[in-house]
Amino acid sequence: MNSNGSLDRYQQLAKKWLDKTITPAEQEEFAAWYNKGQDTPVNIPRGFAEDEESHRVRILNKVNETIKYDRSHRNKIKYIRWTSIAAACLLLLSIPPLYFHIRKKVTKKGNIAYQQKPAKHDVAPGGNKAVLTLANGSKIVLNDAKNGVLARQGKTLLNKAKTNQLVYMAPGSVPNNLPVAYNTISTPRGGQFQVVLSDGTKVWLNAASSITFPTVFTKNERRVNITGEVYFEVAKNKHLPFRVVAGKQTVEVLGTHFNINAYTDENSIKTTLAEGSVKVSAEGQTVFLTPDEQSNVSNSGKANITINTVDTDDILAWKDGSFVFEKADIPFIMRQASRWYDVTIKYEGNISDRRFTGSISRSVNLSELLKMLKYTGVNFKISDKTIVVGS
């Protein structure tokens, strides 16, 4: 079928979608085409009895009802993407469908975008920002530093790569009787950064997080300390365990992928395993995790380790540039927004206890996230660097 024929076909499917005459097979066909972001533009039909807003809502409702997100085929089937928010629309649980008061347009690449009215006050998203503190106490602002070798510590070179990574280049482990130099990388609120440790372990730091580590590991163990949220892809070494200390817990691995959320303003330290196996220990208790399991260690009182099965892709979405909410309440969402947009949260009146499931890109301005949430009956106001949340 030529490009004009393809265009006609998908315009017909769009009309069927609006008229609620589309079949399940046609819905899958239309969704598969739409998510490819092809270069051929498509115009959602207009001119029906309902107004444009209602057309849009009908499409969103149909997506919510019939294009189900299949977790077992996460990499094959995705939500319909509305490109101005760069992710699936937030879905509310147990309340009417969301209505988005934004104007529709068709981009050159054929993706339906939304042209939002600019907010009077807005906050840009975070980015690659971090500070490196060397063993001698001197500091290097990594986001301002030029690419190349930033420092030399013993035989270890600290190199900032073009990919916004700090890479530690060392000849190998050092004898146990030699002193070890420790560095710390800290991200501010509104920051994130990546580092490759001397053994090849890859580390992602979320906003308001830190990692303290040796410039080169000894022959006994590999040990680091973290705060905040950090994702690890640990280089395999069956003879040299890798240990991560976060608050009252220690995670031990030989080589695997996992995430630790150890923010002190959360109820617990959460360790989520993506690959391999890990041992989690806290105050005399020990558990072993298998992929898609998450341990929880209470941040208050005596540690009591519990294990839940989770969607690992959702937990790790932050490092790939998305917020993903799974039955999340407003305070939880606002804590994430506070760290990423570097804003203060204030609450006024009663706050809705409704929970939300959905996702949105972390590259959008704060106002876009808040616009999606306000249809719950919760009002938001941005004042300088403060979000006022009220009913």
Automatic annotation (TrEMBL):
The lineage of its organism: Bacteria, Pseudomonadati, Bacteroidota, Sphingobacteriia, Sphingobacteriales. Residues 323-389 form the Protein FecR C-terminal domain. Keywords: Membrane, Transmembrane, Transmembrane helix. This is FecR family protein. It comes from the Bacteria. It holds the Pfam family FecR_C. Residues 184-279 form the FecR protein domain. The chain crosses the membrane at residues 79-100. One of its GO terms (molecular function) is sigma factor antagonist activity. InterPro entries: FecR (IPR006860), FecR_C (IPR032508), Ferrdict_sens_TM (IPR012373). It comes from Mucilaginibacter ginsenosidivorans.
